[in-house]
Write a structure and sequence with these properties.
The protein is an alpha/beta fold. The chain is 34% helix and 21% strand. It has five helices and seven strands, in the order E-E-H-E-E-H-E-H-E-H-E-H. Strand 6, helix 4 and strand 7 form a beta-alpha-beta unit.
């Protein structure tokens, strides 16, 4: 798949405000500062598409981007630590989960994991919650340029082994680095494969 056209459509505070055009949504979600916006900009080759900040909590709304006129990429607020009030964090959490569970157009959720870290309880809880609610999930391990090959493999295996305490099979996963532009083809390939599958139903 080649991305030829990217367009910011709108920011929404709830699923009721989201675009109503019946196009598949590919959603990016994860802990604050995991690199969601950077990843979206990398795979679209548009560094100005999604706003990036060194401060966690920059994304605060449901952001829809129209890609090639036939599907959406969706950037959600990060969960966990952010320089904002507990009330705001809880509000964002409810907004995101309502969207993820209620959206009829959600084709695939890419849940981002910082590969440098040991399995985080908040990541595992979110994956398990969304999985139990029938949300289709793939994982993207971000910042793979920050670790060596052995540590990368070790950390991914450790995370997946934790998931197997709750999952029969762990979700498909990809590795990425926005700095070294790793993961573009595999992630876009999965999006294309999913769109083809939807169109053949």
């Amino acid at each position: 798949m080649k991305i030829k056209k990217t367009e910011f459509i709108k920011s929404s505070t709830s699923i009721k405000e989201c675009p109503t055009k019946g196009l598949p949504e590919f959603v990016f979600y994860g802990r604050s500062n995991v690199g969601k916006s950077s990843l979206i900009n990398m795979i679209t080759n548009n560094q100005k598409l999604s706003k990036i900040s060194s401060k966690p909590g920059k994304t605060q709304l449901i952001n829809h981007f129209l890609i090639n006129g036939n599907f959406y990429l969706v950037d959600l607020p990060g969960y966990g630590w952010a320089k904002t009030s507990k009330e705001n964090r809880e509000k964002w959490d409810v907004m995101c989960k309502n969207f993820l569970i209620q959206s009829k157009k959600l084709a695939l959720l890419f849940l981002l994991i910082d590969v440098r870290l040991k399995p985080q309880k908040i990541d595992l809880e979110n994956i398990n919650y969304l999985g139990k609610n029938g949300v289709p999930i793939n994982l993207i391990f971000t910042k793979c340029d920050k670790v060596g090959k052995e540590e990368l493999k070790k950390n991914i295996n450790l995370f997946n082994s934790e998931l197997l305490n709750s999952w029969k099979n762990s979700p498909d996963y990809f590795i990425s680095s926005s700095v070294k532009k790793i993961g573009i083809d595999s992630i876009l390939g999965q999006i294309n494969k999913t769109i083809i599958s939807i169109n053949n139903v």
